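How a chain folds remains the central question behind the approach discussed here. For one protein, we set the task of working out the structure tokens from the amino acid sequence alone. The sequence in question and its structure tokens are set out directly beneath this paragraph.

_____
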Amino acid sequence: MTLIINNFQRSICMIQLKTIIILLFLSCITGMGMAQSRYAFVNMDYILEHIPDYAKAKQELDEYSRKLQADIDALYAEITEMRDKYNSERVFLTPTMREQREKAIAEKENKARVLQQNYFGPNGELFLKREELIKPIQDEVLDVIRDVAKEGNFGVVIDISADNSVIYYDPKLDKSKNVLRKLGYSTAEKSEE
């Protein structure tokens, strides 16, 4: 019995050793392939802030968001008013009237939650408006980034504005200005107004 267990343990160790060797081999191959890839960096924030249409679209989206939030705030103000009125008159109300008022408040709260979800949820009106205004501009920028990557033979393009894990990069590898020029926008620094 001990011999069977020892053989079993030995075969498990051999399988683990083979797995480790295969993984080391694959990581070496992958490492060599990655070392041959060329990298470039872009700063999407920098690119987008130099596109006037993006600034207009963002402003319009912000205004739309404030309008939607004002609708929600107005509804919650009504709920607060209803609740305050109910609490001040509660002692004078019959049980049936109390129940009706509580039901009306609960319905209004539910309506506010549904409206908030319809406005700001994952597929809400604000998301759809963003898709309408911002996404076409971002798609155009991404298409140009792909073109710059293909022309420069870059295997990887990293957005330095979105990923805080980039600790250092050579500014010569930043292709943001190339992208802006291909889009037809100036790369001159914006003046602080």
Observations:
- The longest helix spans residues 52-89.
- DSSP finds seven helices and two strands in the chain.
- Confidence is low (pLDDT under 50) at residues 1-9.
- Residues 1-36 form one domain.
